[in-house]
Fold each of these.
Amino acid sequence: MSLPSIDTAVTYPDGDLTSTGAVLHVEPLADGRAAVILDRTAFHPVDPVWPDQPADAGVLSAGGRTYDIVDAVVGATDGTVLHVGDAPVRTGTEGWAFVVCHLVDDPAGLAEGDAVTISVDAARRHALSAGHTACHLASLALNEALSGLWTKEVTVDGRGRPNFDQLAISSSRILEGGSIDEYRIGKSLRKKGFAAADLAAQLDEVEAAANRALAGWLATGAPVSIAREGGRLGLGDRRYWRAELPEGVVEIPCGGTHLRSLGELTEARVQLELSEAEGALALTMRTTARIA
Ligand SMILES: [Zn+2]
């Protein structure tokens, strides 16, 4: 079987939970499982380069049989070899095809050209989408709440606030109904003008300010969507989370899934925790998102 030369067309950014497509390739893996590549899918895979949102759960159906999708990862191929979850290049790199690898335990019966249907677990997707939407909103709230601690001009976010989130983030994990973001405040952030020494004393105030900002935005019920660069459907094409806040439209680069409106969230709150790690400060932001 030949390897795909174009990206998988992905429909999960639009909120799709089912899709139909054709099998392009089935790759046997060393652990006995197999990676099934389709031309089109509604199934969100984890991207190992920035593994914030975990894979969907769900099934693949073909020829009267149903296969559990036990995991899904971003794969990449330059036409010679398929890298399953360990691409040597960033998603979107020119000259590579980026594909959703649907992992199944036993691909017996699946062949190139077969028509398949994908069905995603709706409850898990909805809870992850709520967590991801709240995560992006919380990053804006944190930037807002920390804006007074900057003494120099730095990169700003979509609302014009110093972009602490972008400058300090070390990892982000989307959970069902929430997220955990880890920030590192070290020498380079201090050099950029962040008054790290003042943070501990103001942490409660910062948390309260972030939660006030979140409550205010939730009350607006602002529409949320994913914008695709050039309208392209490819997995490797750039996409942006877009929130139409009353004060203006805010966009954040994003490969995940989201709610359609902030009105779907009944509550979004953050909890901040500061600790010391290897000569730097570590700030943990735990976000909780509730849906009706
Ligand atoms: Zn995102």
Amino acid sequence: MKPKKRLRLSGRNRAAELAPIRPLEAAFHTLLDDLARARSWPTTKDVARLGAAVAQLSALYNSTEKRSVEASGPDALAARLLFSFPRDVPKSAAALREVVASGRLRLPKDRPLRVLDLGCGLGASTWGLARLLAPVHLQCTWIERDMATLQLASALAERAHEQGVAPGIRMDFAGKNTFDVSTFRPDFGGKTYDVILAGQVLSELDRKLEPEERVAAHAERLAGWMRALAPEGLLVVVEPALRERTRHLHAVRDDLLAAHPEAHVVYPCLHDEPCPALWNEREWCHEDLPIDLPEWLEPVAKAAGLRWQGLGFAPLVLERRAEKPAPAREVRVVSDALDSKGQREAFVCGHVEVADVAGEPGLLARRVRVAQMERDAGPASVAWDALFRFDRLRFDPSLLVKGEAPEGEPMPPRVRLAPGTSVVRVAAGEDVRNVSAGSTPPTSDDH
Ligand SMILES: C[S@@+](CC[C@H](N)C(=O)[O-])C[C@H]1O[C@@H](n2cnc3c(N)ncnc32)[C@H](O)[C@@H]1O
């Protein structure tokens, strides 16, 4: 098979254009360094010192210990400002760009978009949204339990606007509050928001609870946050792409959907049925975008023993709606392309046609391993030739799976694409990689 590359599709394969996701602009580099220098913290020039702080922060975030994460000392804040912030800004944009391309995010005509960022940290999720939607005017409410973090986030936002490093971005503030999101009621007093962001904060909540108890508690937290959504508003949850964190998010999703019929997944799932990734404990459904850290952070990532290539995270975008939409005959690619001699395979998830099962055959939500033999590839299936993780695809004829995977079956059904099958990418975009040639990352740390 040919090497994986993005193709510009045309004619019957034309896709809805997704906004490109870009690493943070170089203009932020000086600004972030200046903020660090003014506080006598290491800057990106102090590679060894900053690298050590970043490594320490990463170990703290990735710890599975059942204690709360305290990342607000000077070294931790320096690492968050100079490394986590630039790395994390693109994540919320990536979680929302398909929703935006489909026109699903309603932009009010007569007022700013009201945005609530829960556990905002340095505001990376808000910045990601602002960059995606620019020049849309955002009116933001930031909630962050740590005062020092919130002050730094404010200084960063103020300086960025003063220095014009973010042209086109319009963001003002309805509130910046040092509240605890565990007890904060966003809908208090009838307040509503068009977008509620919860970027990498769920991971830090209720760590002392037992796993099942924590899943149920987090499902109720999300349901509570969703009560503060304006009509057609969206809750955007982003979690680290670490297996346990992401599987926790899948389980929270399932609990939420089971207990709250008004909740509906807008992205990435194309169905509200139980998450098939949970059938197999080695699986976790996450994005891995071909976007690198800004070049000025490569030496720091190397010094910290972390990866600088690719951007991994687990998104979940939710809405409240009275009725579930009809199942779409579309699937999400949930793995990388798996190439072996003479064929390209990938796992996909979505409603597929299932036949030869007990009862009526029909459209069922499944995770399926799909293969195309190289000799069967043709112009109609060019999207399969160029597929990327999290592509949204439509097959014609639609995928037909014979026989159902038994309950709890780890191996999902397999399907081979018949010659001539058309594969259409429903939405597609070109990301800006920030090219750093060839070498592979030393670790696969995603937090
Ligand atoms: C990993 S950072 C993520 C920051 C930002 N949301 C992002 O996406 O990059 C998590 C943030 O949540 C904050 N946080 C953790 N628990 C919190 C709580 N119970 N209430 C409010 N903020 C909390 C932490 O102080 C930290 O700033």
Amino acid sequence: MAEVGKIVNIMNILVTGGAGFIGSHIVDALIAQEHRVVIVDDLSTGSRRNINAQAMFYKLDIRSSRLEKIVRDVKPQAVFHHAAQMDVRRSVQDPVFDAQTNILGTIRLLAACEHAGVTNIVFASSGGAVYGDGTPLPTLESAAPSPASPYGIGKLAGEHYLRYTGARSRCRWVALRYANVYGPRQNSSGEAGVIAIFAQKMLTGSGPVINGDGRQTRDFVFVDDIVRANIAAVKSKKNGIYNIGTGRQCSINTVARLVARAAGYKPSIAHGPAKEGEQRKSAIDSHKAKEQLRWNPEVALEEGIEKTVAWFRQRKAR
Ligand SMILES: NC(=O)c1ccc[n+]([C@@H]2O[C@H](COP(=O)([O-])OP(=O)(O)OC[C@H]3O[C@@H](n4cnc5c(N)ncnc54)[C@H](O)[C@@H]3O)[C@@H](O)[C@H]2O)c1
């Protein structure tokens, strides 16, 4: 369970995507703080196993016309919007589906929030996808966004709709641009989540493969730190866009070595062909979140990887 600051007043809170990797950790932390939590999730990539038994759960697509009534009935004081199509490759292959979920679904949710008088919305955006290649590293929020995929375009559009809705309805809004999030419950069969993929493969003895030379870098942030950022966003009473990462680049070779050490995996790790169009380097600067949200990443990569591998090991044993 993440150690997080407390939202003092007990609230009704809606978490979209609350059966997924990040959303379910947010739900657990909110329930531990005794908030009343409602989850909307269509279980397309999320899982019933992740759903906190004390949350109310609606199996629903955020694009559904039923969403508005649910939001009106729940009357949430805060909404954490994490439901999304989050597969970058799928967004390239099927940009219409990506936009339907990530842009139209977000518009539908925001309209429902406006009608229900929601006063706080936190939106899960993406540092890696919104900035694109070529920005100075670690990238600041002030860098011109240049998304290199439909997924990144959709996240940027979501931020604009959020800001617009906030201004229209006097609702406080925060978009958190996450770096590469990792931790327990991450899907190890998706295209993202290299730490989950390596952990799963190393623990089952099926050799992981590093794409290209492995010197490409990413900024890895542990899911408990993401939970704290979401809670800090609601507590801050600020509006704005914040990077949520460590500011540090870590190569895929280093990550593979750390996961292998935690998993007790000895064989050498194979390299395959580089992925076409893959971003070479990425890291985001989170000083703004430090100053305005009083948020700092607290979990070191080695510790986070150990916790993640321990979770995959335990799941394998069940
Ligand atoms: N994991 C990362 O590194 C990362 C980085 C940047 C941003 N994000 C964002 O964080 C959020 C959560 O991502 P995650 O890593 O937990 O992924 P995830 O796939 O585990 O969670 C997404 C959840 O949304 C649900 N969902 C998808 N489409 C839906 C729809 N139309 N209606 C209702 N529910 C729907 C899924 O079933 C799933 O439970 C997403 O918005 C993602 O874009 C994630």
